[in-house]
Amino acid sequence: MEDCEITNLHNTGETLKASSKTKRQQKRIAALVYDGLCLFEFGCVAEVFGLARPELGEDWLRHGYRFDTFSFDGNSVNTQYHAQIQPSLQADEWHELDTLIIPGWCGAEQPVPQALIAIIQQAHNAGIRLVSICSGVFVLAAAGVLDGKMATTHWRYAEILRAKYPKITVNTDVLYVDNGSVLTSAGSAAGLDLCLHLVRQDYGQQVANTIARRLVIPPVREGSQAQFIEQPLARSNRQAITPLLTHLQANLIKAHTNAELADFMHMSERSLLRHFKAATGTTPAEWLIEQRLQLAKTLLEESQFSLDAVAEQSGLGTAMTLRHHFRHRLNISPSAYRKRFSIQLDKTIS
């Protein structure tokens, strides 16, 4: 599973333009629609990939995502609440897609039509990226494309998924799982996290941040973050960790020990780790790495600093450490990331 980055909103006040690589090819994404369509999950997909987003500039309007809807038989469908959708793609046009998203399914026990299974299998063999949100995992599972892989779904469907498809390793302690060409998310709002993860993969951190800002949601929640906390801390305790997060964010370049952080918060190390885990879903050390990686990605996208300078200014120390974390967590080198996601910024004319 690919790790996901925790970031803070970075509002440049400037219009983004796609990279030269982005300009050469528009990415085509479609959402599967079906009778009983889950409207919340579908809405998440349409909101992230279907809007024009003029705030990203004219190049994005021409070369950003092209969003379509698709039904396996080409017919119109009736949604969960009886609204009707006429798919924009014909039944045989799926092969033109880069990504096919299954936003939920009409029931964990509802059989998946053989015609849809065949399309999913053919799409997988053709290298089309397949994505499920919530119960949509049952469509991918029925097609066999998750056999031998890890997957997630809404926690209340986990046991059903395990029982029906024992070849799949079901993990409900995460928001989403990235297997490369096949990705699955947990329930409901976790679908937004996975959609933003796809945007980061396709167009980089800055574009994902801009979309998240318009959605008024955090640009990144860790993919490994738990779906729910069984015994959440009181709201006052969750808020109490905020000064520490602010302090760390302002001092990424410095080294930090748990003892120093506990002293900063006037609590024991054990209490610190418990509160920190409850607030962020991870440890201080892991959180710092993710924050430093986010800053490093921004520097790679927006500057021409050397790798040594990027490593130093992001708090990762050396170019060797920078390369290690990029390879380990993002499966890409810093130089390749810069080449892929370098963004030209044009100041907005007020």
TrEMBL record:
Keywords: DNA-binding, Transcription, Transcription regulation. It comes from Thalassotalea euphylliae. CDD domains: GATase1_AraC_1 (cd03137). PANTHER family: ARAC-FAMILY TRANSCRIPTIONAL REGULATOR, HTH-TYPE TRANSCRIPTIONAL REGULATOR RV1931C. Transmembrane segments: none annotated. It comes from the Bacteria. SUPFAM superfamilies: Class I glutamine amidotransferase-like (SSF52317), Homeodomain-like (SSF46689). Residues 242-340 form the HTH araC/xylS-type domain. Pfam families: DJ-1_PfpI (PF01965), HTH_18 (PF12833). This is Transcriptional regulator FtrA. GO terms for molecular function: DNA-binding transcription factor activity; sequence-specific DNA binding. Gene3D superfamilies: 3.40.50.880, Homeodomain-like. Signal peptide: none annotated.
